[in-house]
């Protein structure tokens, strides 16, 4: 009718609405074509507002699909129109959407500027819900820059604002996001509080699905804390609610959680029944991810019961499901399980091949994590895969390959940290900008695929899944090509690969040796490298027993007046040093580099006795140095000698009674070119500005350690206008410190 009337503006409005319906159905390629037709209809109609809205709709589709450059282009055109119309509402939306696009491209500084403008305009227009939404976007940008406290503060403000304006659904969502942030930062207590609050509000407004999801999240937290009974109760509540609501996808998810928990507890019959029921439900729903996950759990049950053939059959069937939904996180677990099952059948070469596939998938996921500082944390709880691969390679007589595997994780994580290839530092380069964009695009597409698959089959949009999957495959292919190109172009000495043992041995001098440990589930694997050879040995003590012995020793040496520490020290030495003595691996060595793993990072090796009678200690027979990885020996640092000598600091914040006296005493030992900072002068800003100018740094202050997220460990300095005074590890890694000696005179720094 509009066509018959010749009303192009009306035609465009109708077609725009039709395209919005296509968006709801997930038919994005069709909607994009229709939006472009709308722009053509609006051309010459003096309908700037319609053009701006349509450009925004096009940008929205591109943003959803992770096409950040295309989205940015559309939103910038829409912004120009909004500026000409002086529309505050539209200007706020355009600035906010531009910020989201820039965030996807890795331009956090630019994104922050546009988020600020979006918040300002939304506030000016009285759009408080939009203010809260853009606050959450700005919070995520700040977190990406490592400004966690500022990001947390904004997330909290957004929650408060949602509460003030009475938008409970958005408040529930924001609280859940806040909980996820706490989890990522290694703060399960705060995460629990956020999930509990989100669940309580969900109950108030009757959001059944949100209640169920929060119950599952709280159950996961209890599993993490070893609270298995509490987790069981939470999972059962989630299962019951999902049953009553008829949300069968959540019923299957709850059953899978229960099955995994009961598997850990050795309740194989219960786990089997629950996993099979979940599999039946998921198959009926067409929920492929749940089908694959149930198959994996069934495979684990069979393997742990000694039925290797049945386990491999389950893993294989489940793996065949995965290519349709693209989930390497689950795929690596299946390859890992298959490898362990093959090892149980003494098919060691095939088992090694499966574990190598698992490692490659793990590292592929890790390399796509948007936050570099979380990559090491992502890998650390998966080290058992590496440990089992080391064990199998050693059993096959592949000592060199086993050492390479032991170094593979360490070298990658170490190189990531010392090179500081961060978004801020790398965004200006041509290759880095492309990598940032692709990583963010892959993250976005995986997120929307997961959300779509989580929906009931009747509501799932197959056209949308098809588009998402095609886009994800293309993005991942482009990403792999980019990484391959970068690897070929990488300058010598900058590779992230694990060093060969020959490279490490060439760095060792006469009388020097390197001890590298890998803690497995049932044994400790030890590599001894000298300039002449590599030796692979095994100590007979499992992870749990080793952990308790180290903790006991640490507790006892806190009381130096007694000698109760000697017996646990001797039992540890029997496992960690005894095999080396029996093999004669320490003969003619005076200097040892120790590369620990797991709980051994907290063991003071210097206190271990070297002989059977326990008379002499390691510190009496060897000079010891600790390394995070053998790859650190390949560093060739040339310290400058044109700097001042000593910087001593005793911050007021620490409130340590004798810290100032100590700093003054140390200061008095060194020549007059030194500098002493006491009390409130000991600020984080000043330290960052001047620390690189000194050969010796002496810090008398509190240190704190975040065991769940080590990069958030740090030292207490004094706050100022620019920094909060908590000098965290991820900040230190971004500094250029060439000091030859750094003394951290904090509590418990001598415990390993």
Detailed description of the structure:
With 752 residues, the protein is an alpha/beta fold. Helix content is 63%, strand content 8%. It contains 33 helices and 12 strands. The strands form 3 sheets. It has a 5-stranded mixed beta sheet, with helices on both faces. A 4-stranded parallel beta sheet has the order 7-6-8-12, with helices on one face. A 3-stranded antiparallel beta sheet has the order 9-10-11. Helix 31 (659-669) links the parallel strand 6 (644-651) and strand 7 (675-679). Helix 4 packs parallel to helix 6 and helix 11 (188-205) runs antiparallel to helix 12. The longest helix has 28 residues, at 462-489.
In short:
The protein is built from 33 helices and twelve strands.
Shape: globular
* Largest sheet entry: 5 strands, mixed
Strand content: 5-15%
Rg computed from alpha carbons, rounded to a whole number of angstroms:
29 Å
The rounded distance between the terminal residues' Cα atoms is 81 Å
Placed side by side, the strands forming the largest sheet appear as 3-2-1-4-5
Structural class: alpha/beta
Number of strands: 12
* Stretches with pLDDT under 50, minimum 5 residues: 369-374, 420-430, 487-496
What fraction, in percent, of the residue positions are helical?
55-70%
Structure annotation, total helices: 33
Mean pLDDT: 84
